[in-house]
Design goal:
One of its GO terms (cellular component) is plasma membrane. Keywords: Cell membrane, Kinase, Membrane, Transferase, Transmembrane, Transmembrane helix, Transport. Its main location: membrane. The protein has 210 residues and is mainly α. It has one domain: Serine Threonine Protein Phosphatase 5, Tetratricopeptide repeat (Alpha Horseshoe). The termini are far apart. The model has no long low-confidence stretch (mean pLDDT 90).
Length: 210
């Protein structure tokens, strides 16, 4: 994935996370999804035209399409109000592809990006549970995980790459995996607190009546 593209992955994931926890309205978030989704469909198409059948370049473009189509899909859903089940099942496909790409990164001696792709696989699997299977109780968990890993897997690596200081080794990959696991634990905790608070609010009128 290109350095600039990765930077905007961080941006749009951050915005989508805020949307999922109710901070940003869906239609407002849709604008950035269209911008970034369009960029990550147009740019890889240009790259493929110039790839000359280079497998590494083609692999990178394929990964960008997975993100680009997701963001365009999100934008369309927010603007039109259509059901999100299709995006949910597409997210399952993206999650599976991300697992495979992570293993490919290992064969390319890049364990850090292998972990990044696996963290994205977890995130897109949460999108599948939320949208594909309708598990709405996971909305805040998914939102917080999206916010936390937006910078961990997007913004920070992008700036490191842009500065020409990127390194990939096993200790860094294990550190990133630990931070990703911590982000998931925090997201689950915050999601459960929100669910408990919502349940308490809904039960209050009934308690007052009795």
């Amino acid at each position: 994935m290109s350095n600039v593209g990765l930077l905007y992955v961080g941006a749009v994931l951050f915005i989508n996370g805020l949307m999922l926890i109710g901070v940003i309205p869906g239609k407002s978030a849709a604008i950035l999804n269209f911008f970034v989704g369009g960029m990550q469909v147009v740019f890889p198409t240009i790259v493929l035209i110039q790839a000359e059948n280079d497998p590494g370049i083609i692999l990178g473009a394929a990964g960008l399409y997975l993100f680009g189509f997701t963001y365009l899909y999100v934008g369309i859903i927010q603007v039109t109000g259509v059901s999100g089940e299709g995006l949910g099942w597409f997210s399952l496909f993206v999650s599976a592809c991300a697992v495979v790409i992570g293993f490919i990164q290992l064969t390319l001696q890049d364990p850090v990006f292998a972990v990044i792709w696996w963290i994205w696989a977890v995130l897109w699997f949460l999108f599948f549970l939320l949208l594909g299977l309708g598990m709405e109780s996971l909305a805040h968990t998914t939102g917080w995980f999206t916010i936390l890993i937006s910078h961990l897997t997007g913004t920070i690596p992008a700036f490191v790459l842009l500065l020409g200081r990127y390194e990939s080794n096993v200790p860094l990959a294990l550190t990133l995996a630990a931070l990703g696991s911590l982000a998931l634990l925090i997201a689950i905790t915050l999601g459960r607190r929100r669910a408990a608070a919502t349940e308490a609010e809904e039960s209050t009128p009934a308690q007052l009546v009795t």
